[in-house]
Amino acid sequence: MRVSSWHIGIAAEAFAAGLFARYGYKVLVQYGANQPEYDLLVEKDDESMKVSVKGSQDGAWGLTQSFKKGKTYSEAADIWLQRHGKRTVLCLVQFQNVEMTEMPRVYLATPAEIAGVLKKSRNGHGETVLYESYSYKSGVGAGTTDELPLDWRFSENRIDELLAEISKGC
Predict the structure, then answer these.
(1) For the structural domain made of 5-169, what CATH number should be given?
(2) Is the pTM of this model over 0.85?
(3) pLDDT value at position 31?
(4) Distance between CA atoms of 83 and 38, rounded to whole angstroms?
(5) Bridge partners, residue 91, by sequence
(6) What pLDDT score does 79 carry?
(7) pLDDT interval class at 19 (50, 70, 90)
(8) Segments making up each domain of the chain, as ranges
(9) C-alpha triplet 38, 24, 108: angle, nearest 5°
(10) pLDDT digit string (tens) for 154-165?
């Protein structure tokens, strides 16, 4: 069943908040239109990070298209990256081929990690869309498959890893 992007956004945020809470994190949710940079603030043991939640029901997250005009794919990714703070992490929630009563697939990544994957996509030619898993049949990416790194899967270890990285960088 396909639903509106608004519904997907609400559901993605709710699933993300629930997962962080389940691991014992305090979760603060920003409500209202056009939230600046992040949707959730999660905290545990005086460590915190901002979480920008992106939901999808088609296997991909369009992230840098608005920065592409007149720029290379790499430049668009760099401009997108500059718009994120050092304490921000993206939570990617995927509903494609997920039954209504099942848990979506969820991933956590830093903006720098995502920009790196976008730049390497399509056999190193770059892309504006981050794919969960996509095989190129033609063009410059023909014969290659872009996939999210397995270590981006949502887990307590992944959260701890990202919090440690954020704490080191600030």
Answers:
(1) 3.40.1350.10
(2) yes
(3) 77
(4) 11
(5) 53, 108
(6) 97
(7) very high
(8) 5-169
(9) 40
(10) 999 999 999 998
